[in-house]
Specification:
The chain is α+β, with helices and mostly antiparallel strands. The protein is built from 24 helices and 29 strands. Strands 20, 21, 22, 23, 26 and 29 form a 6-stranded antiparallel β-sheet that branches. A 5-stranded parallel β-sheet has the order 3-2-1-13-14, with helices on both faces. Helix 6 runs antiparallel to helix 7, helix 6 packs across helix 11 and helix 16 runs antiparallel to helix 17. The longest helix has 30 residues. The termini are far apart. About 4% of the residues have low confidence.
Length: 703
């Protein structure tokens, strides 16, 4: 039966450009949406910027802009990313919009009328200089447990203790440096703990298929918690100054950003349905009817689906469905949760060289469909992290997409153009059992389709990979390049190449949700209609079907592109040309010309620390490098240093040295170098590692 689905992704916060985690989520959702549409289902895919809150207000202030102008500038840059990675949202809107204001205030009024909103006075830290209440992130002080300085207002990074901001010793505002004062204010709360809310959520969470098992289990933990773990009511208001939506019956109060942010899904959908583009979309896709927002949301057969990350499960499985239910709005049919993206097994961090800048990926000429394919190959229906490994990325793309997929066309299409005037034969099913399989049954389409629908993209790609292996085996066995040498085998050459291209067509349809741009190029190359690119094809090329001359569909990944991708900053790369590489101590560079003088402030930018060498190892394949593990007092670091010619690794362990601790990490062939040990040398031979005097301990700063 045709499905009608309203699909969203989590709204990105409008205080910066997209990062690779956003792109991963959008790719996951886009693949699912494209697959549904290929089956003839009606899908409306919308997104928006999350544009409110104190962080945006403060960031705009720092930039010297009004918040409205600040978020508008962020929004203006979104299209480059979305179009660049072939992510086809039907609409992109903002929570700073008339629609979102209307929905937020309407939901609030209905929740209040249902007796689920109340007010009470609370005590919070207040910055007397900035004249504003402070969220935990804007308060620092000394940990009440271990005494560590400069700890945030909710947890200590040194001893991992958790506490409230009021427990900090010598607290201060990170915004002004002033000592905060406690001040009372009346706040509005949504009564999430109300028995009727809890009972509804239990039913909603436990409905089979609505949530992934891991997500449902986590939601049940929150619902069934007791004491301090019991489900609490939700503070939905904030005091001025605040960039947000005014609470209609509470002058001077604003909705907390997490109330109006998910409501942005509804605002964007309404904006789309009432916009100028929607009628054209209906016409282009052949939908049976046009919907108003109220009509679509009132139809129980229509679906509402959200794709989100695992860090916002609490909001989307408790607050969001409860606010919708008791404000008489449609509740989500599914909330699909994914994990984070890591790089070579490490949490993303641009400063540590383990982050991927999506825009840089595009700017250096990397194919967006390489990334779409690689991410899809790693994704499944569980809440698992996806790891981007550069070597694996190169191998998968070059082996799977080029070696297995594109090469089918490149090995056969030329013969059709050169020997048969660009026309294909009516290939016989007997020439290739795979054709018979694809035409006569759902043996291929159905299992792969189930994997797509269940978001088991990795399984789908493995099935498609097996299909590609069979096609390549057929081509290898038939050897069209040998048939082309014997005139009597011309008929067979025509049959073999036509059969291979027919199966290449089927494979392209199977991959189309993941590789939409490549699939479109294949469609033009094979001279097909859009209807012939829909899911579940059982037709075949008629005799004398003309195709276009073949041109390269995709290039291989060049390892140098990965090197460029992980060059964290172009300016740092330029500077590296005239300064020692992180893998090479200062001792191995030629003596520079006398440097220009610097100020004390410039020198203070260097974070030189005493470090203890815990371990030193030889590096396989490296002539000059040692791999050194350092203790900096607050943790360990790994650096690669070019001192192999001067030091025996065993003799280094246990000695103290000096390291540049705030040098940008550098991803190397052998691993990530997270700093630079300092050494001295003269014009002659010899490298001399710097060592502090007796009494120094790891972590001390060199000033």
């Amino acid at each position: 039966m045709p499905r009608r689905i309203f699909v969203t992704t989590a709204l990105p916060y409008a205080n910066g450009p997209f990062h690779i985690g956003h792109i991963m989520e959008y790719i996951q959702a886009d693949i699912w949406v494209r697959f549904q549409r290929m089956q003839g289902h009606e899908v409306h895919f919308v997104g928006a910027d999350d544009a409110h809150g104190a962080p945006i207000m403060l960031a705009a202030e720092k930039a010297g802009q009004a918040p409205e102008a600040f978020v508008a500038a962020i929004a203006a840059g979104r299209a480059r990313y979305l179009e660049g990675f072939n992510i086809a949202f039907d609409n992109w809107h903002s929570t700073h919009s008339p629609e979102n204001t209307w929905f937020s205030q309407d939901i609030y009024r209905k929740l209040k009328a249902a007796g689920l909103v109340y007010t009470k006075a609370i005590e919070q830290f207040y910055d007397p200089v900035k004249n504003m209440f402070l969220a935990d992130r804007y308060i620092k002080g000394e940990c009440p447990k271990c005494g560590a300085r400069d700890q945030y207002g909710d947890a200590c990074e040194n001893c991992s203790s958790v506490y409230s901001p009021t427990e900090l010793n010598n607290p201060y505002s990170t915004l002004s440096g002033a000592a905060p004062v406690l001040k009372r204010s009346e706040h509005h709360f949504f009564k999430l703990s109300d028995p009727q809310c809890v009972e509804f959520l239990r039913r909603w969470v436990n409905e089979p298929g609505r949530l992934q098992p891991q997500v449902a289990n986590k939601a049940r933990e929150w619902l069934e918690g007791e004491g301090e773990s019991a489900l609490g009511d939700w503070d939905i208001s904030r005091d001025p100054p605040y960039f947000g939506i005014p609470i209609p019956d509470a002058p001077g109060k604003f909705f907390y950003v997490w109330l109006d942010a998910p409501i942005g899904y509804l605002a964007s959908f309404r904006n789309y349905l009432e916009g100028n583009r929607y009628p054209q979309v209906v016409k282009e896709r052949g939908y049976e009817r046009r919907w108003t927002f109220e009509e679509f949301m009132a139809d129980p057969d229509n679906e509402q689906v959200h794709f989100i990350g695992k860090d916002i499960i609490y909001f989307h499985t408790l607050f969001w469905p409860a606010t919708l239910k008791f404000a008489d709005y449609k509740v989500p049919n599914n909330v699909f949760v994914h994990g984070f993206i890591t790089v070579s097994g490490e949490k993303m961090s641009k400063s540590r060289g383990t982050g991927i800048d999506p825009l840089r990926y595009l700017e250096i000429g990397m194919n967006p469909e390489w990334l779409r394919y690689y991410i899809a190959a790693k994704l499944n229906a569980n809440v698992e992290d996806v790891d981007f490994n550069p070597d694996d990325f190169i191998a998968r793309v070059n082996s799977d997409l080029i070696g297995k997929y594109v090469n089918i066309a490149s090995r056969c299409a030329g013969f059709i153009s050169e020997r048969f005037n660009g026309t294909m034969s009516a290939a016989h099913a007997a020439a290739m059992p795979l054709i018979r399989r694809m035409q006569s049954s759902d043996d291929c389409w159905s299992p792969i389709g189930r994997h797509y629908n269940d978001r088991e993209y990795g399984k789908a790609i493995r099935e498609i990979g097996g299909f590609l292996d069979e096609i390549n085996q057929y081509v290898d066995e038939q050897k069209p390049w040998q048939l082309a040498k014997v005139e009597v085998d011309s008929w067979k050459l025509h049959q073999v190449c036509s059969s291979a291209l027919a199966m290449f067509w089927y494979a392209t349809v199977l991959l189309r949700p993941i590789l939409p741009a490549t699939a479109e190029r294949v469609r033009h190359f094979l001279n097909l209609t859009d209807d012939q690119m829909k899911w579940g094809q059982h037709s075949f090329f008629p005799g004398n079907h003309a195709i276009q001359p073949y041109s390269h569909l995709m290039t291989r990944v060049d390892p140098k592109q990965l090197d460029a991708l992980f060059d964290i900053d172009k300016e740092q790369a330029k500077a590296a040309a005239s300064t020692p590489h992180p893998a090479t101590p200062a001792a191995e560079t030629q003596r520079p010309a006398a440097p220009a003088t610097i100020s004390i402030d410039e020198f203070a930018k260097l974070d030189l620390r005493v470090a203890k060498i815990l371990k030193a190892e030889l590096v396989d394949g490296a002539d000059k490098l040692l791999k050194i593990t350092l203790d900096l007092g607050s943790g360990t670091r790994t650096v690669f240093a070019g001192i192999k010619s001067a030091y025996d690794p065993a003799g280094l362990e246990g000695r103290l040295t000096v390291v540049v601790a705030n040098l940008a990490p550098r991803r190397m062939k052998f691993g990530l170098s997270e700093g630079m040990v300092l050494a001295a040398s003269g014009e002659g031979s010899g490298i001399y590692l710097l060592s502090p005097d007796a009494g120094a301990v790891p972590g001390m700063r060199v000033k």
